[in-house]
């Protein structure tokens, strides 16, 4: 009986405040759309880093024949086979915990397997280059991609080493831009959540004010504060629940159409978030919206409906 009464009062309150309830739904929808977008963007960054960082290597460029800007290449000659072996021994001795694999790539191999694939015919900036214009290198696979600095410190001053290059440097600017985008969406989401909390509290307070006489009668006949407040709390919760579900549906639609249906088909070398990712974060968004609404409503009512 009591449960039916609460639901009846909630439905009556929703009908009386339809426009305000719609406003709460829309603000919740937009707020949690931004929150979901920021979570998905961070998930995308994490997914891309996890895949790329497992594949990238530290490239140790050995001195080329001829002039070089590096003080380690003052002789103007490429390191001999013995000197290259010494560098490899240094890596094995001093970096055995950081480096899991060493691969020697000759300049001919680099020219055939990498350079000509990127620049057909060896034509680069109007010049036709040959294997003699390349330089030997060592490709190091790290046990932990974050340990690049330790490798650089050991090898940068080594004779015969022109440069130690971390391939992650290619991706870091991209990740930096994505992280800034995530920060912007987080700020916007925080602002919209604040607006949603304020609007929810105001809506519930107005709803309680419009039914002040009824709540006074309920109190006179012995109804507890909880029974009096519950219909108003449910009113805000229902509005936020619908808004959050709509935001999850919108996120799923965006990912389905623009990510899975477009980006993932065009850029096949990059892993992307998918519908499964949206489904994974959706319960958190929905529960978060319900909790925010319930808390905002409860605080507003405790100030207004005083025993």
UniProtKB/TrEMBL annotation:
The chain crosses the membrane at residues 21-41, 183-205, 226-255, 275-301. Residues 187-303 form the ABC3 transporter permease C-terminal domain. Residues 56-164 form the FtsX extracellular domain. Forms a membrane-associated complex with FtsE. Part of the ABC transporter FtsEX involved in cellular division. Belongs to the ABC-4 integral membrane protein family. FtsX subfamily. This is Cell division protein FtsX.
